[in-house]
From TrEMBL:
Keywords carried by this UniProt record: Membrane, Oxidoreductase, Transmembrane, Transmembrane helix
Record keyword Transmembrane helix present: yes
Domain FAD-binding FR-type: 202-299
Cell division among keywords: no
Protein name: FAD-binding FR-type domain-containing protein
Tree of life domain: Bacteria
Main location: membrane
GO cellular component, one term: plasma membrane
Membrane topology, from the record: Multi-pass membrane protein
MF term (GO), any: oxidoreductase activity
Compartment annotation: Membrane
Membrane spanning stretches: 7-25, 37-58, 79-96, 116-136, 148-167, 179-202
Gene3D superfamilies, per database record: Nucleotide-binding domain of ferredoxin-NADP reductase (FNR) module (3.40.50.80), Translation factors (2.40.30.10)
Organism: Candidatus Woesebacteria bacterium RIFCSPHIGHO2_01_FULL_41_10
Amino acid sequence: MLRNKRVATVAFLIGLSQLPVIWLFTQSSKLGGIQYATGNILGIAGAVFMWWQFLLGIRFISRFITRDYVAILKLHKFLGKYGVLLALIHPFWQVYNYSDWKLLLLPKLTTEFYSNVLFGQGAFVLLSLIWILSALFRSKIRFRPWLYIHYLVYPAMAMVFLHSRAIGTFLNTIPGMELYWNFLLLTFCVVVIYRIANLFNLGRAIYRLNRKETKSDGITIYTFMPVRGRIQSKIGQFAYIRPRFFAEAHPFTVMKYDRERGNLTFGIKAVGPFTNQLEKLTVGDKVYLDGPYGVFTTEGQSNAPKVVFAGGIGITPFVELIKRFGGKRTIMFYANKVLENAIFREEFKQELQTNYIDAISQEKVKDKLIIEGRITQEVIKKFVPQDYLDHANFFLCGPPPFMAAIQIALVSLGVSKEKIYSEEFGL
Ligand SMILES: Cc1cc2nc3c(=O)[nH]c(=O)nc-3n(C[C@H](O)[C@H](O)[C@H](O)COP(=O)(O)OP(=O)(O)OC[C@H]3O[C@@H](n4cnc5c(N)ncnc54)[C@H](O)[C@@H]3O)c2cc1C
């Protein structure tokens, strides 16, 4: 079920945008019958889904719909998996109609029509590659190769438009459809221009590193002060950091936002090339930020009962939450390998007292509020009263196996899935 009403509205609009395409079935006679028309309609429907998928994959656009970037990305992925499939069925249907299987991949430049089929063939090859890698093998390939292949969607979309505009019978003979297609094409072009400008940091705020503090376990606390533009982050939201004028941008939770000065503080664990590169930043260096995104802790920003589970660096969305909305009705579990890694532990203990529980997996520590080992169903039952299990909101952030284990334990204890909110540190 879609939790976010705005995302549900977008899903509804996506359905609505297919109505003119479905209406085309009534015009089948223009293409010599339902069999021929279906081939074209599949292509058009697939292209409409792709257009939505393309738009929703762009943060600048999805930000206007909702800050719930994760929900938007889910819709984006869903469209990618199932919507694009229609566009991929289209060429198979067409070559069956034309009884010429070679037309699927082999160029034939004998007439202008076949030259324009070439754009379709190009789009088919690129989209097939993207679809196979994203829908079938995403978990098997590393993030960067997948990301760079994903960018092929830009030339693929351009080819889809060139192909459909040149030889799409419906699009060239029904004035309403022509107008509809021109609108999709125009928005696509505007977005591409924006994306190019965005490469040059248009639309990003500029900050300067103000303070850098090294903690244990490869964690560094970075505080940035605004130079141009400001990101007004709410508790638990995240922003994308780009450490140089031309560089990748990765998402990180804003751990603290200083309203007066506009400073943003992040707690970042070095785990790979990007985060290692961030460690090389020195005070005074410029970075480019965009955001804020996310709605992860929205339901926790009150004094209603809540239970928080943080694993390692997954603590960052909760630092400000506990400070502002901690109190007697908040229970917090913080899992780490060794106690030293539990950053801000003293602050949490002071705020939550006996409602703060450490879970330490690789060190022996004698304390009745420190669990040795993992947070199990029994541990949760021991510290979380039944009325919390029935009514409180639960927030989970940490490594994927940690979140999966807690989720299973909570559901086994009767917690409603609707009351469990989680944030994954990988999109
Ligand atoms: C909403 C959100 C909030 C986050 N908050 C924090 C935080 O507060 N502190 C912290 O230390 N880490 C946070 N992360 C994780 C952080 O973004 C990754 O650890 C970092 O991008 C890894 O990059 P790398 O090159 O150092 O490591 P790699 O080993 O190259 O990447 C590790 C994994 O990070 C993810 N990743 C890489 N690049 C991107 C990207 N451009 N966009 C999205 N995911 C990517 C992929 O899942 C990848 O497999 C957050 C992630 C998300 C999605």
